[in-house]
Amino acid sequence: MKAPGWPRDHIDVSALGLVDANISLAANSVDLGVVKFGETRFMLTIDRARAVFDLRQLAAYGGAVSGEFVVNGRGGLSVGAIFRL
What is the reported pTM? Predict the structure, then answer.
């Protein structure tokens, strides 16, 4: 029996090219129902089909997380992430 593996479907991120935006959030706490976070600060920047989610601070489980996640839709799709605990 062979596992099916990852899907090979094309991921369409063309919608990233429809808008340029800067969105930020700062909150003392964030409650998602299943999980609760403490002080949270992040910024989402979309510029010419490239989105950068900058997690500046996320207090969780007695520690902190920061980092960034990038989705680049310029001329194809590439993704990358760096997180610090």
Answer: 0.81
d(Cα 72, Cα 55) in Å, to the nearest integer?
Answer: 17
Pull the structure tokens for residue 58. 């996320």
Show contacts of 52-60: CB within 8 Å, 24+ apart.
Answer: 55/83, 60/35
Which amino acid belongs to residue 68? Answer: E
Going from the C-alpha of 7 to that of each of 3, 10, 14, 46, 58, the distances in angstroms are 11, 9, 19, 26, 31
Per the CB < 8 A criterion, the answer to whether 53 and 66 are in contact is no
What distance in Å separates the CA atoms of residue 83 and residue 78, rounded to the nearest whole number? 17
Per-residue model confidence as pLDDT tens digits over 68-85: 999 999 988 999 999 998
Token representation of residue 43: 């910024």
